[in-house]
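Ticket #274: bound-state structure for zinc ion.
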Amino acid sequence: MLKFDSSHKSVDIDGFIRKYETALQKIIIGGLIITLLSPIGIIFAKTRPVPCDIEGDHAHLYIDNETKIERYIESERKIVDGLERLEDYRMITEEESDLLKFENKNGLFRIDENWNELQTITQEQQSHKKEYRYAYEETIHWSTPMKVGKGWTVIQHSKNVTRHSWTTDENHEGLTGEERDIEYVYQGYRITKNDQGKYEVEQSGYVSNLQNLPEGYDYIKKDFYKTMSPQTEEILDYEDGPEVGDREVTQQELNEMMQENSSEQVQTEDTKVL
Ligand SMILES: [Zn+2]
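RESOLUTION: The complex was predicted; output attached.
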């Protein structure tokens, strides 16, 4: 069964990488002077082309294994944008090829071609009316540069932090007792051609059901849903943000601080020289 609670994080690898890149630029400052998240190894599976003897222009069908939604892509690779190639393919004209390229560049999936899967997902979502807050422990790692004599070294730091998120699972571990009302809302996309004959994409507002999308909004992206507060109609957040008393700094601020402080940065308890 699909899970839509804590799976708001990390299941979408593209989203995860994007989030990680953002995290690299937002540095949390707390009791420690400067923190810089150290890179973690993400293995990018750059797969080799799959043998194919189909002649003429064609696109293969690819599936998102988490949601089971699919789209055609002109590629001979096994994995494209996290989607896995299936047996199906279709022949395409030059015009269809242009449209497919645009759809793929924008991460768009056709609603009509994925209707059954989308119905399954949205019906499951709409059965949930409440979310429960839970706490979990996480170890964060980061490194700071330190000047040693005439050279530099890198100091590794780590710290355990308590973070919170929201789940639809009433029996989730670490529940805090807080709860909130939720409603799932959806967004679609429309492809149009501009005066120069170039494709453009427009996003719809939020609707309570995919059937309620305005005319012409025939596409969704993989993250096509959000949760909304029925009381305030605000889109709800799952992110924790910094711990109380900490703040986030930009990469530029960090660079400035690194220039100002060099050796002072290491005067914290939980540091060790590599
Ligand atoms: Zn092929």
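RESOLUTION NOTES: The first strand starts at residue 27 and ends at 29.
TICKET STATUS: resolved
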